[in-house]
Write a structure and sequence with these properties.
Layout (H helix, E strand, L loop, with lengths): L2 H17 L4 H13 L6 H13 L3 H12 L8 H17 L3 H8 L11 H14 L3 H13 L6 H12 L5
Helix pairs in contact: 1-2, 2-3, 3-4, 3-5, 4-5, 5-6, 5-7, 6-7, 7-8, 8-9
Amino acid sequence: MNSDWEDRVAAAWAAFDTHAEEDAPAFRATIDALAAELPADSPLGAFERACAWDSTGHPDRAVPLYRQALDGGPAGLDRHKARRAKIQLASSLRNTGRAEEGVHLLAPELVAGSDELDDAVRACLALCLSSLGRDREGLSLVLGALAAHLPRYQRSMANYARLLVEPADE
């Protein structure tokens, strides 16, 4: 996609972030119009539309669009947007009562190539686990992610995170 299109999408999101949800239908219409500039089967268009529905409180409408974006095949989303789509899809699945699907979607991301979305993967996965009553596992993920950002106690917090999910010694 060209940088002009990406710039216009970024501007639409910036305007939405500034004005929050004052006019969610108008925002979705703007994103729909931008997506319509792409081929009808564009994973990128589906992704942006999913994000718009999700961000305006309609995770149920976002789920099929995220799936469409992720099923886009070899001409699909770049790695960064695909990872964002997985995180956001898992969140939407959790919000629609399907947290187990979110866990299955995000668990492989824990061992995928590392990038700036690692903590978001862990945070969303922790929420999915918590929704399933697996709070210790979720807390372990969050503490493990937080440990790397602390000015001190990184090793201790990482160990505490690990001990939350390790079997107790007999």
